[in-house]
Every structure is written in structure tokens, then in C-alpha cells.
Amino acid sequence: MEIEKSEKADMKPVASLTDLVDSLDFQHEDYRSYFDRQTARVVSVEISILSAFEEGDEEDLDDVPDWQKNEVEIARAIVNDNSKRFINPPDKFDFHEYRHMEDFIDTVDDAQIAKHLARAIRGSGAFRRFKETLYHFDIQERWFQYRAKAMKEFVIKWAEENDIAYEDDLKAKRK
User: Fold this and answer.
1) Strands 166-167, 15-16: pairing kind
2) What is the pLDDT of residues 57-76, one digit of tens each?
3) How far is CA 42 from the centre of its chain?
């Protein structure tokens, strides 16, 4: 069915759950990520480029390579945004993976395995030891499924709180 032009203009772009979940795993200290409401995409911009605009040093960006020109335009739009076009995407620190590890342990039926996992997440190196323990008991796939479901629920909640339309393309991508 074709959408009338006036209806099309009123439609919000639809975000991909895959993109939102991926943004949790692909955060980097040299880049700043934003969700662009206009395109329904997560965009990342090198912090040095953002800083040049924020500090009024735009002329420093005149000689960026061609492959980075789009990033410069995105940075310009972010710095000049007064309309809330760009918002913070779902954040890995708000996801609290450690809490999800604890919750996963509560789902493990084998008391001995649960005990080993609980011990593994104590102290420094908890994430590494947790993964090693998962592999030792060959339950890593169960954890990955549990984590994927928790991440999906987290980004859906974020999308709903931010009035972002989304499409659940995760099942199609994971097959």
C-alpha cells in the first residue's frame, strides 16, 4: 500500500534494534556516539572533530581526508543542534552487565555451577573469570542468549522512553 505524501512526512524514521544493541558493544573512548532522530541511526564522531567545532576551530578541519568529510558534517550538525535531533544512544554503563551476570547465575539449575559462577564474579577480573567459568562448564551459549535477550529488552525500553519507533530485526539477523 502506498503512503500518501502528507502521511509520509509525518512518519518518524524507524530505528533498527540491531543498530541499537550494537551501539552498546561498540562504544570507544576516542569517539562520541549519538542517536540521530532524523535518520534513526546511531552515529559516531571522533572526539577531536567535535572539539574543533565546540572550540570554534573549524578551520582545522578544512584538510580532513575525503573519507572523513561526512563525519565532519555530522559533527557540525551535532554541535549546532538546538532541536534535540541528536540524543545519547543506549549506554553500556546503564546496561549494568554485572547485574545481568548475577541474574543469569540465579537461572542456573545446577547448584555447583551456580556456586562456581558466583565465586568467579567476585573481585577484580570478574568478567574474564565469569567467561572462563562459562566455557569450562560449556554453558556460554546459554549466557549469550540470556545476554542478547537482556540487551534487547534494555534497548526497547530506551526506545520507548525516548519515543523512538523501532523494528525488531534481531531475529532475522541472528539466524
Assistant:
1) parallel
2) 877 788 888 898 889 899 99
3) 8
Whether the CB-CB separation of 166 and 156 falls below 8 Å is answered with yes
The pTM of this model reads 0.82
Q: Are residues 122 and 135 in the same domain?
A: yes
170 three-state secondary structure: helix
3-state secondary structure of 104: helix
Please write the tens of the pLDDT for every residue from 80-111: 888 899 999 998 889 999 999 999 999 999 99
3-state secondary structure of 43: strand
Shared domain for 104 and 152, answered yes or no, is yes
Residues 59 and 106 in one domain: no
Cell numbers placing 75: 559533527
Residues 56 and 74 placed together within one structural domain of the fold: yes
6, three cell numbers: 502528507
At 33, give phi and psi (nearest 5°): -110, 150
In the chain, what is the straight-line distance between the N-terminal and C-terminal CA atoms, in Å?
29
76 and 132 in a single domain? The answer is no
- H/E element holding 67? none
| 133 in Cβ contact with 125 (< 8 Å) | no
